[in-house]
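LOG
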Amino acid sequence: MEAADDHVLVAPSNFSMVEDGIYRSGFPKPENFGFLSTLNLRSIIYLCPEPYPEENLKFLEANNIKLFQFGIEGKTDPPTPMPKDTVLDALRVLVDVRNHPILIHCKAGKHRTGCLVGCLRKVQSWCLSSVLEEYQKNAGVKWRQRDLNFIEAFDTASLRQCLLSIMYRYHGYGFKRKRLVHGEENVQTPKPQAAKV
């Protein structure tokens, strides 16, 4: 019976798929490494200032996973505001499909991770009520009004301007529907014209 337990895959706390190639969770522990291996991750976005544990770094190295660390404080007393520039930097990594499949995590996978996913949803042109509802659902009873305010006030215009070379646009859902956008695309379908006689 003990041998069978070795093959049980355990997802990190608060794990879920944001969409194809993008996942979110709480901090992965060694017992989650088997599960994470099945995702074929290329990258991890880590949103805490603390150093990444050695055991986790070894797992990343063994699986050729790149770590992007954005040290965002998670203090509640006194409350630490979300740093807009750091969130923008993390979004640049997140929307670059060359980094996918990618996992986003902080400690609990609720607040910092929720803010980043909320900002991604705004880039994807989700309606604000759906963005905020998704944040609250994942944060549970510990949702924070200041996080909702940050997501609501987040301006995607600066991100769109600086990411045109790597940002993907969605044409429906599904992995094959993502594509890289190079420069501003103004693809216009020519209007049919009557032949001149």
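LOG (cont.) second protein
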Amino acid sequence: MEFVRPGGDGHLRNASTLLLPAVSIGNAGQLAVDLLVSTLGVRRAGFLEEPHVLPCVGNDPFGPSAEGKLTVALEVYEYEDQGLSVVQQRAPVVKGAMMKYAKNMAVWAACEGIKEVIVVSGLDSGKRQRHDMDLSQIQYISTASKDGLDGRCEALGWKRLEQYLPLSEAWQLLDRDSVTDPVVDNELSPDIHSTDDAYFPGLPFASIFSSCKAEGLKVVCVLCFCAEGDNVPDAFLIADAVQQYLHHRKPEASGAQLEWKVPLSWTTVYGPPPDSTMFS
């Protein structure tokens, strides 16, 4: 993985925290990153060249008007005053190469001097525990402790993902693969494949989590249970959670509620409104 800064030196500037999405159900994490980039007004610093992410190109997603500024598969944005860098992923990882991508991302982040990585992702609401239905959709796992607990996240009212079982065979295999070169991505034994134990460690966020942990980085995964459909409300929920975490981590910050700025690209995400005459 290589960072390309047009006209620059190819390195991040004053970055201690990295925020990035893990491609997931409803693209909730990517939508949340779009919302944060649009609202915080962070500037695009460059892009990442990564052989394990499919190429794509599109128009400027943020506006305020579509001026023809191209966007690509992996872009990097910087908020230098806050020491925050943001990666947005707009294309899927090549099938079978998720761990390779995660390792490349972790190594690059470590080389750039990143101290903490925040991963945002959606989770299938069908896998949610019934006794959690009255709680927030937001759950988390962290490297702050061996069991994934983090006092700062707990203070925000978040619950640790109950299905994070670091001593289970599936999670142990993931940790092993993050420091070795597996022949097959996430090659779990058949008996694990036949259970729900393989679902969460088989998701992209888990590969990024384990790979960054292997590089000695602090990692917090902000996870939101959701379903396919209109995932805009889920994006707001995740973006709110990230803001709360960032402000909680910096006691001097006011923590005031942001007025979210919806990206230009969202205006057509679900197409034009229905013809009103069809209801008359």
